[in-house]
Design brief:
The protein has 109 residues and is α+β, with helices and mostly antiparallel strands. It is 37% helix and 28% strand. It has two helices and five strands; from the N terminus they run ββαββαβ. Strands 3-4-2-1-5 form a five-stranded mixed sheet, with helices on one face. The longest helix has 21 residues. The protein is globular. It starts with a strand and ends with a strand. 25% of the residues are buried.
Length: 109
């Protein structure tokens, strides 16, 4: 199962994104849930950095399916929109395929 944890401050400011694990929907190379999650998360991270010019800390372990992004300062409005769009996509994948393969949770920091 892939676990996505999104940590926000009480005012809604994004502070951290953690994506951990492989979905296990199908064999490696054929897992459409894992591929969909990866595309959404990696594309959002790349867009935040390259298109929005955000700076943040990232830790990655591809073998374990682990990505962590720490946002040390409040993000620009368009960057928040990018993350909101990613969350929307992830929640829809969770609804479609179930929490057996993808679990999205929010924590307040």
């Amino acid at each position: 199962m892939t676990n996505i944890t999104i940590r926000k401050e009480p005012d809604g400011t994004y502070r951290q994104l953690v994506c951990a694990g492989h979905a296990g929907f199908a064999k490696a190379g054929r897992d459409i849930v894992c591929a969909s999650v990866s595309v959404l998360v990696i594309n959002t991270i790349n867009a935040l950095e390259e298109l929005a010019g955000e700076s943040f800390e990232t830790m990655v372990n591809e073998e374990d399916g682990y990505i962590q992004c720490n946002f040390p300062h409040p993000l620009q409005e368009h960057s928040v929109f990018l993350l909101d769009a990613m969350v929307y996509g992830l929640e829809n994948i969770q609804k479609e395929y179930g929490k057996k393969y993808l679990k999205v949770k929010f924590e307040e920091v």
